[in-house]
């Protein structure tokens, strides 16, 4: 006989219970990827302060007791009482899903932590979580266990008004995660990306378990990024770099060709690495193919009647980084691996096309090197296709 299905069968998960019950829905997994996602969500809050012009340094420490500490010199999370809830804003941010300054464009015009569930989820899946805030002339603190506050926010001591910043320490819950060991190389890669994407921001990574420390800062920004990506390869020219703003969207691009045959194009949205690409990357690819075709036709480098260049020709040996900063990105899923905003394709295209065209006109020596490589790729593609067609015809007989 089937079990009864009545009103009593309907279960309501209160607060952060849902996150603890289905953590993979919010963090992508409960393995190594999900564990590192805790760091990304925590760091994102500090990076958002940097994007807003209020943070210059972030320090992340892997502690000997298995906890992680992230400290920044931003404004500090507000600690005053929230007008609607009657408790500290710090507690609201740490315990309520979809709470935070990310939804207020006056506070953060641009933010990587779009969904407002990031730091709350970190709290939910931590057996212990401590938030410390320097602001308003004091050091404020609150401790949580599995997302639940152990006591109200309290002022621990007085500080000069000039001191400000947020420090988060969390202990990943080993009942939820299959591993609580962080990968130094994974952390290095991400922090290097963040500093390349935010010229001048300093991130210090410390591992107290193994006595190691590394500092990341990139004054050269994206140009420095593509040069670093091309290390070990022969670059054909200095990086091509441009930055433009259209309405509330900032588009930043760096391109450098090398002597290899691989395509390396990386897309970022509000410093989030969109590993699956998205409309910003499509817009860039469309623009660069069109600009190349226009140039070779206008200069006669491509003879009349010859095949037009295709995307694969244009992207052979390219290393490019496209970084956009946009007020309301539409990511596919909470883990933010692909950008979905349809309007961004046309916007990136309309920015890259004139900027790249102007560069080609003003830098004929560099352009000649790039065009020569692209035309060689086209010839090789056409020759390979003809050879394949010849083999097929022979086999047909």
What descriptive keywords fit this protein?
single chain; 397 residues; Ribosomal Protein S5, domain 2; 9-stranded mixed beta sheet; 37% helix
Task: Give a topology summary.
Blueprint: H1 17-21, H2 23-27, H3 32-51, E1 57-62, E2 68-72, H4 89-95, H5 118-124, E3 126-135, E4 138-145, E5 148-149, E6 154-158, E7 165-172, H6 184-197, E8 202-207, E9 212-216, H7 221-229, E10 240-246, E11 249-257, E12 264-269, E13 272-273, H8 279-299, H9 311-314, E14 318-325, H10 342-362, H11 364-396
Parallel strand pairs: 1-8, 12-14
Antiparallel strand pairs: 1-2, 2-7, 3-4, 3-7, 4-5, 4-6, 8-9, 10-11, 11-14, 12-13
Helix pairs in contact: 3-5, 6-7, 8-10
Largest sheet: 9 strands, mixed
What's the domain count?
A: 2
Please give the alpha-carbon distance between the first and last residues: 69 Å
- Globally, the shape reads elongated
Give a written overview of the molecule:
With 397 residues, this protein is α+β, with helices and mostly antiparallel strands. It folds into 2 domains: 17-216, Histidine kinase-like ATPase, C-terminal domain (Heat Shock Protein 90); 221-385, 2-Layer Sandwich (Ribosomal Protein S5, domain 2), CATH 3.30.230. Helices cover 37% and strands 22% of the residues. The protein has helices at 17-21, 23-27, 32-51, 89-95, 118-124, 184-197, 221-229, 279-299, 311-314, 342-362, 364-396; strands spanning 57-62, 68-72, 126-135, 138-145, 148-149, 154-158, 165-172, 202-207, 212-216, 240-246, 249-257, 264-269, 272-273, 318-325. Strands 1, 2, 3, 4, 5, 6, 7, 8 and 9 form a 9-stranded mixed β-sheet that branches.
